[in-house]
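From the pipeline queue, job 12 of 40. The input is one protein chain; the requested action is below.

Action: predict structure.
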Amino acid sequence: MPGGDRREGRCLCGAVGFEFALPTLFCGHCHCSMCRRSHGAAYVTWVGVARAGFRWLRGADALIRYPSSDHGTRSFCGRCGSSLLFESTRRPEVVDVVLANVEGRIDRPPQLHVHFDDRADWTLVGDALPRLGGPTGMEPLD
């Protein structure tokens, strides 16, 4: 990726590394049950990046890809298990990257909560970010 700002990221063990170009497309917290189970957490923070600006630096052959839905695939390190990406055929031009695996700050803070009505009932959220849900997970909640 010639020129421009970019960020690098990696898995826990360092076997898999990647980079992407800024600007990012979005940053948000997902509360869906698949994200909770995949990460073992109340929710996961994703940053959307342009596929054209994303590349593997090392370890692409160490990835395990899991088709978690009819349109989505989750990728994780086959050595340490770190969850790294989500890719959807509904948005082929976008790669969703787990923000916790990115080194340094990106160009925006988290902007919203998606699938909020599917959140774990023990999760307390005290911010004022928009909360989306409904059948698509992206509809405004009252």
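Job complete. The chain has one helix and twelve strands.
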